[in-house]
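Retry 2 of 3 after timeout on previous attempt. Resubmitting structure tokens to design endpoint.
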């Protein structure tokens, strides 16, 4: 059975799900958790650590432990958000060869798609472990407000991981799918999705006949739990300065401990109204005196420190309603997605804004992966899944730069996809033989203020007076959200089609190299997982044999068991024990099944 898994590639946590039978289910990791931390580290000996293992060593290895890398994906190094992260991160963020972002781990620069690929790979391994076979295809979710560069970077991550990305699905849309797939009424949903790093609001119509229609989506791809944590960290740094006169901003270990304590306190304050933050031996002063921090943080103070972030999220909700041309009364159900929506201040603000209690019964950490799994299942079953059709929208306007450095949108924000459109542009100079087409995404009337997606040139035009030669530019977004641009010389009919592949910042050669490394890593991990399964099988087989052996020996005379057979069985068990100790469990398949047969026979004979 081939599966298409659904992966929620979150800023703080990742989650993987699959449709089993007719329902989507979350696949938990070896440790039994439904989510895996989006944390990657490289240990001193070069070992790669992902998830909980990386979290566990973060305080002792802060320079080489990366968290929240999704906040940097598809951005250029000079972007204000990246510079913001550069100042606050314990790990080193550097500029890549294409002006992109790289992170230094043990002397090697890793691109963000490469790090994201490691997370995808980890989630694939979780799924393979649970489903017992190789997984090659996945639906991966992204924030709805991600632009094309960010989406492209996630696609590259999938490619590096050697996973076929069947679809890139918007996170709030995935949540709506999971909410609505077994409901029978017409409803208008507002999905409020505040995760670790990003914020989206989508308004979605769901109907038993019409399917899922996203009517508006908007957000902020740099607003999330990390910003709440930052506020607490800044407050803690200030307390340390007050109490000890010490500035810890440049000490990675102290910063990492502060960050972890801040996040823990924030999470706790969703359940209690006060919490203690106790961080002994945070640092050492110049005179050798230790810096201890002992403070109490109240829920009300946390709410004061972060009130503006909550307000920002509500302003975005207003924008979503405006875009959907709906009023608050038109919303039937509010769905909360993302770990941050557990914060009481957010729940209160959302309830007041939408004038209703949000829907319970949707798991904020799992619903996105469940929706992605449904979408994967749908892709697999060729329209026969019984799932309703889905129409999403594009969150940003797409267009090109025209004379005067202005931006001319060709596809407006909130247009339903798939869509295509075209526009005719005339040359602006006499004898012009080349037209350069610069493709941008955003809402600003000045081209330079929007996101640059790529450029291409239409060359070899017939020299003619200005305005006489016309070039038709066509934009297309397909159902997978993939965006293409083509241009036609109207005179010759000659077409130039390009896929606007821009700014993930890694070259095809680099991707090929990363794919190779990733494939080697996957093979090694699969082998390790296989060995682990064999080891566990051996342990169980030996334990069962050991349990039955004393009884078999005691009752040997009164049974039909031949003494020689028992001696033979003991020797087999001994050999299995020995080879397993030497660490080659895979070599024992035959012996282990022999041992199982013997144990079964003994059990039956002894009754
Ligand atoms: P996600 O990206 O959806 O996994 O969201 C993770 C974010 O939710 C992180 O910033 C967490 O600190 C935050 N979070 C998780 N649990 C809670 C909680 N109980 N209260 C407040 N925030 C939480």
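Retry 2 succeeded. Sequence:
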């Amino acid at each position: 059975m081939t599966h298409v898994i659904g992966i929620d590639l979150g800023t703080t946590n990742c989650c993987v799900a699959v449709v089993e039978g007719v329902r989507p289910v979350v696949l938990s990791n070896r440790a039994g958790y439904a989510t895996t931390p989006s944390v990657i580290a490289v240990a001193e000996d070069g070992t790669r650590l992902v998830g909980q293992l990386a979290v566990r060593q973060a305080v002792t290895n802060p320079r080489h432990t990366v968290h929240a890398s999704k906040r940097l994906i598809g951005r250029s190094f000079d972007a204000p958000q990246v510079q913001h992260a550069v100042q606050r991160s314990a790990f080193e963020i550097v500029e890549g060869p294409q002006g992109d972002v790289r992170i230094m781990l043990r002397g090697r620069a890793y691109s963000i798609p490469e790090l994201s690929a490691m997370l995808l790979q980890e989630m694939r391994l979780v799924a393979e472990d649970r489903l017992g076979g190789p997984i090659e295809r996945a639906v991966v979710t992204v924030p709805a407000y991600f632009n094309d560069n960010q989406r492209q970077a996630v696609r590259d991550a999938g490619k590096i991981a050697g996973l076929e990305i069947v679809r890139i699905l918007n996170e709030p849309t995935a949540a709506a799918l999971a909410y609505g797939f077994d409901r029978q009424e017409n409803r208008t949903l507002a999905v409020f999705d505040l995760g670790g790093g990003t914020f989206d609001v989508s308004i979605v119509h769901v109907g038993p006949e019409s399917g899922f229609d996203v009517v508006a989506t908007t957000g902020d791809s740099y607003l999330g739990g990390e910003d709440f944590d930052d506020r607490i960290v800044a407050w803690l740094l200030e307390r340390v300065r007050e109490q000890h006169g010490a500035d810890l901003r440049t000490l990675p270990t102290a910063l990492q401990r502060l960050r972890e304590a801040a996040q823990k306190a924030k999470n706790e304050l969703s359940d209690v109204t006060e919490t203690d933050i106790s961080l002994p031996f945070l640092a050492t002063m110049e005179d050798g005196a230790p810096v201890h921090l002992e403070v109490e943080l109240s829920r009300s103070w946390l709410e004061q420190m972060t009130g503006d972030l909550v307000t920002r999220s509500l302003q975005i909700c207003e924008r979503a309603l405006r875009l959907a041309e709906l009023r608050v009364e038109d919303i039937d159900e509010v769905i909360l997605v993302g770990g941050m929506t557990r914060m009481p201040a957010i729940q209160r603000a959302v309830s007041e804004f939408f004038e209703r209690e949000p829907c319970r019964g949707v798991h904020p950490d799992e619903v996105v992966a469940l929706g992605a799994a449904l979408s994967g299942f749908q892709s697999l079953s060729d329209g026969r899944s019984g799932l309703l059709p889905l129409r999403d929208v594009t969150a940003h306007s797409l267009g090109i730069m025209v004379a005067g450095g202005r931006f001319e949108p060709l596809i407006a924000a909130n247009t339903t996809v798939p869509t295509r459109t075209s526009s005719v542009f005339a040359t602006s100079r006499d004898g012009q033989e080349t037209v350069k087409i610069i493709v941008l995404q955003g809402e600003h009337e000045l081209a330079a203020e929007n996101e640059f997606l790529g450029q291409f040139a239409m060359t070899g035009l017939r020299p003619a007076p200005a305005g006489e030669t016309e070039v038709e530019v066509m934009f297309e977004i397909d159902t997978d959200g993939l965006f293409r641009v083509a241009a036609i010389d109207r005179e010759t009919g000659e077409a130039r089609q390009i896929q606007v592949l821009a700014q993930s910042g890694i070259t095809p050669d680099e991707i090929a190299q990363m794919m190779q490394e990733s494939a080697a890593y996957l093979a090694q991990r699969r082998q390790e997982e296989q060995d682990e399964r064999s080891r566990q099988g051996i342990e169980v087989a030996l334990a069962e044999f050991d349990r039955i052996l004393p009884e078999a020996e005691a009752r040997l005379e009164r049974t039909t068991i031949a003494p020689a057979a028992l001696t033979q069985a003991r020797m087999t068990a001994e050999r299995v024990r020995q080879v397993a100790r030497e660490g080659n469990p895979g070599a024992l398949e035959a012996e282990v099944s022999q041992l199982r047969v013997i144990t079964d026979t003994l059990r039956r004979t002894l009754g």
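Attempt log closed. The longest helix spans residues 508-554.
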